[in-house]
Amino acid sequence: MLDPLSPRAQSLRSEIQQFLQLRLADKLGALAADDPKREALIAQYQPQAWLADAARRVTQLQLVTHPLKASHPDARGSSLFIPPSSLPPRQEVGSHALPTLVSDVVGNAAALDVYKFLKLSHAGQSLLSLLQAGDADLLAALSDDAEQATAWRDAFCSIAEPASDLICHALAKQIYWPVSPDAYPPDAHDDSHFHLLSILNSSALSHWLYEQIQADRFGEATKAARQARRDGAAHPHGYHEYPQLAEEKKGGTKPQNISQLNSERKGSNYLLAALPPQWNSKATRPLYGVASLFVRFGSQPHVRGLLDELRDYLGKLKPEANNMHIRNRRDAWLGELFTELLQFGAGFSNGLPKGWTAHPDCTLPIEEQCWLDPYRAEDDEEFNRAFQWQDWPAQLAERFAHWLNTRLGAERLSKHQLALGEVEFNHWRRELAHDVALLGDWDHKRRAVDHRLLPAARTQEVSHESP
Amino acid sequence: MNRPELPEIDALLHIPQLSVQNANAISGPHSWGHPGPTHFTGLMTALQRKLGADSGLSFVAVGIVSHGYQAQTNGDYVQRFNLTRNPVGKDGSTAAIVEEGRIHLQLSLLFGLQLNTQRRAASDAELDELAQQASRTLQTLRIAGGSVLPGHSRLQPRLIRLDEDADVRSQQFRRLCRYLLPGYALVSRDDLLLQHHTTLREQDATATVLDAWLGQCRINHTPVTDDAGKTEWQHSRSAGRGWIVPLPVGYGALTPLYEAGTVARCRDPHTPVRFVESLYSLGEWLSPHRLRDYRQLLWYPGYHPENGVYRCHNDYQAPSLTEPTPLGVTA
Hints:
Shape of chain A: elongated
Protein name (chain B): Type I-F CRISPR-associated protein Csy2
Number of domains of chain B: 2
Oligomer: heterodimer
Pfam families (chain B): Cas_Csy2
Order of helices and strands of chain A: HHHEEHEEHHHEEHHEEHEHHHHHHHHHH
Helix content of chain A: 40-55%
């Protein structure tokens, strides 16, 4: 006579039965009431029969953290099981920083129900971890036949065993990294100075990111915070936005062929944007028919935005407010504006053909022409004189300071003593002069080189003409 | 861990205004956009190998400056990649789509070089010829998987021998920076990641570096209530904070290093093999005129056997926010 089951084993057994009942009900629901297949299906879902079958099919699955198929669905090689705790500490962001171990499963998608079974949780522990610990109650719950239960346990535990041999694949990412066997730096010409790195992706990290972003996009807490912002009301917490977020679909219509977690995400993999700021090349059409470069500079959306922010910020301050923190913030804005100006100017001097300011439609003042078209000085003697002798960097800086003060509403701001003063003016002048000096200097040196290269040809020309 | 430093270099090679078509836009498993530093250090190695051992140039580091891009995506809040269905299968049927991200790039590269004795004594004309040769060779290579299109830039590739004197070197670099405008240079912000992680840990001891990283890669809107009880919503991307992006900087080992030939179906049976995963950090795109030293711009690969990290380094150090930066004194 068999020993009666312990209460815990009883409850485990009923949990397993419940799981099977649910799955069976799902399958039966899809069939007509008089379908002859019903009988077979019911037989298949008898616990003993199902477990025997599951123990056979579990060999088609493997527990992993880094599935290879996430790189390419047709890649056939090793996936790895590397828990975060087994990795050494690193400063960078990687799967080693994940707070918990989240496993993924790869293999035959038709056997994934076995993994769902192993993931059933009893008092906070999955059946798999109970099996791995050799839990006696669970073994008793699996089968009345102890030998049979042990065999099944061994079969189920094999899911966590790594595949025996490590195999790479042509469709897996493989790169060479220079590593010197002795002294730094490695020699790129020596084939022995490289390691071949095969790159796998952490499925759990993708999943972590996905869950964070889903919650930040669609979660109830986020909705409430967004609403509070629209209403201008207070809220216990804020919300997050992901500009230029991209979504990549892995596995197409069959995300389960990549991995279990990928299937749970419906194949979606979020990618955070790492794009540089975009320089608006339309801003560098030749400046014809305008009186100053600041007309176009000031009309650029980004510059307008910066000006508005700065004006709002300064406008809100109390007249007596003027401390280091405020000045730093203001200077950060001014620095951004100045950066924009340099970028804007360089767009013309580096981007347009030299001499573009010589066009009759160009009505820019000479100091702006000097800055935006410095190479014209190479060919144009008259222009060169202006370029060499005029105090144009100072004039340009003054124009900039004047333009900025006007746009910020200087009269209103003068009470703050935060508008541009003498110090800033000198700063812009020096920065611009610096910019220009570098330019002139470089140019000078380049022309010196050209002259050194050219004389031979010139003397020849001369000698041809003179006789 | 000791912070690595850029090895000494003797010269800078400036390759201006390259147009790259269809470069890989998915630079890592969790980010997309501009190709990361590893793409360019790889390019650097490929270029050196193609130039041959007798070129007398040894490539040490590379600087990346973006002048513009055109991402091949569509969508409004969530971007999706423009995909092509190719190639067809053997029987003419269409193959399953494996998503690829593409981006057209306009960029300038600045390589940090070591010259051999002969090149160190070379004339300016020889250096110009070398620069031209390197530029021509570069155009035959793939850049982050994309092809180089013939350029129309007025600027020429240039090889600049750095002076012995540190001040002159700095001058040489700043002069060069002017040719990198209009554009944005990529620098490392490991410091920001570390700093933000420490800040988060002060509030919540369980905060991981992942939380710190994600917190810097998005716009955070927070309500701020002043003393008068008035609430104002602020966001974390205000002026002066910099253009911060997630950056795949290299790889972390998952397994020990396997001897050459022991792992089946590798690219070659003569090189030791290791399985790795991508490692992320933070980067910043900033205007090159803010850089004072070529060390701030250049990226170089490193390997740290003690924790199995293969990553690119950059010696940029952000100006400290606590220190006031008085105007009018810097220039």
